[in-house]
Amino acid sequence: MREQQLRLADDRTARVAGREMRVEAVSKKFGQAVAVDDVTLGISAGEFVSLLGPSGSGKSTLLMIIAGFEQPDSGELFLGGERLTDIPPHRRNFGHVFQKYALFPHMTAAENIAFPLKMRGIEKAKRGPMVANALERMRLSALGERLPHQLSGGQQQRVALARAIVFQPALLLMDEPLGALDKKLREEMQIEIKQIQRELGITVVFVTHDQDEALSLSDRVAVINQGGLSQFATPRELYDRPSSRFVADFVGDNNFFPGQLIATAGRKGQVKLDGGKVLAGQLPEGKSIALGAKVEIAVRPEAVSLNSKPDSRVSGTLIDVQFTGGTTTRIVRHASGAIYLSRALSAGSHAAQGDAVSLQWDETSAFIYPADGRA
Amino acid sequence: MKVSRLVQCIAWAVLAFLVLPSLLIAFMSFGTDPYLRFPPRGFTFDWYRLYFSDADWQSATLFSLKIAIVAAVIAAAISLSTAFGLERVSNPRLKESLRLVLLSPTVVPGIVSALAFYKLFSAVGLTGTFLGFVVAHTILATPFAYLCISSQLHAYDRTLETAARGLGATRLQTFIHVTLPLLSPSIVIGAIFSFLVSFDEAVVSFFISDTQGKTLPRKMFEDIDFSVSPVLAAVATTITVGTILLLAVITILQNRMKRIPSQQKE
């Protein structure tokens, strides 16, 4: 079901500084509320993994459990094969970048970066060059003596990152680290983070609610919903083969057509739409849906093209054409009031606003999901 | 903003009203007459010399200083731990009740606490003792220290402690390197206020003093009864100057608190 196969450290292990991390069947409740529900994740050494989910999905709690600030009610954590569950946070040797950086306001940038070294009992003479090195890597050499409040948001962010990696942590944990930055700065930092992660070969667990961020940075993305792991896959798989209605909806745009499953043949299914039309689509892997069950067909906007002559397929009125540079999105309103999207490279259809159009797509790009299924 | 002339006049008048008595006392402390007189005649430092050389005045002053320092340290320590403790109380009613109990010495009339301390201390033999004064003054001063510390703790970003722990600091290291330095301005301010409350305290001290152990305010009271020597004015002026210096320290610390925000920018 939702459990993912553990992916053990691959041949990269030998070359990288980061360690492999396993989260096994971890659950956590706060009172009656389930924050993390039986999550199993295998993160390879040197891998960049994002925990992606809406706010309140439990992704931050999961991060806090990995960090050791929260104890799981059940389940275990392993780092490179060693049991980690009972080890207190300060002895896990993880780097942390917090949401609002959490720089110590009474220490200079250099002192902030030296802090984890000092706590590890590294003598002053050795700390100096390590801090200078970290400052240089983050292009902060001239700012080492400034206090955090004398630095811009982007600079504070870089100090926080330098502080988190200066002691060569086994794992780098980042909790929405870019949330407070504006768009341009955020994109710059994304590139910077990715570069450092590659150079150091560090294992990263990155929490975000921003799917673009997750898709562009990560080797794999764990989609978390209502405390559970919905899907753990590469960004490509996540987008092309979402395993559930939730993932299909949460990651990227999607059109959903509600109906009832009336026939199956292998991986193919026939769905009778609420309007009476029958459409074909792909059934999800490893899941069986009972005949007669309520389902939805999901089709990505870029798989949908518009036909100016209404025919037997789903049809509606073209209500808006949005040109967004590389692509054009056409918005169609169905008689039921539902809104559908069709996205194409700028040429696209010739239909004009107000025209009656029908939607068409290849049935291999239509996916059938049980309606309202959480996972 | 423009302030009308009338408002300005009123403001200066109020200020003069507040400061004038202290200024008059200061003037009188330099007069040559052997009794308090206004306007003073002549100019002398004799009364200060007398104050700083007289054994009785010295012992009362040192007694008061020792009490105030110890009471301030204890009050600040109690307030720091209480402020942390109350932060963690999740039940809002319980939290508010505990706060009120802690702050209650400020609303109980001085004479009431004085009587209570007197009855209690004479029963257990604490009147006139260093310990007795320390206990009483600590109780009276703690609310002030608590208010200082808790208000800064309220604005203080606890995720800094989480960050320190995550970066490898033990709980003790976190407290020493992060919590304490960040809260130190309010801890010092709280301690100074407590010191002033204790040093200044007259009503309770009056009741729990005896012939051996008496604080400076009590000694001043007694002297007014016997004589109205300008040495009293000299003592009062010395206290005023000391207080002004401590208030200057407080102002400097408050500015530092503003300059280094204990919370991150939003």
Automatic annotation (TrEMBL), chain A:
What highest taxon heads this organism's lineage?
Answer: Bacteria
Does the keyword field hold ATP-binding?
Answer: yes
Q: Which UniProt keywords apply?
A: ATP-binding, Nucleotide-binding
Entry protein name: ABC transporter ATP-binding protein
Q: Which organism is it from?
A: Taklimakanibacter albus
TrEMBL record, chain B:
Protein name per UniProt = ABC transporter permease
Q: Give the classification, highest ranks.
A: Bacteria, Pseudomonadati, Pseudomonadota, Alphaproteobacteria, Hyphomicrobiales
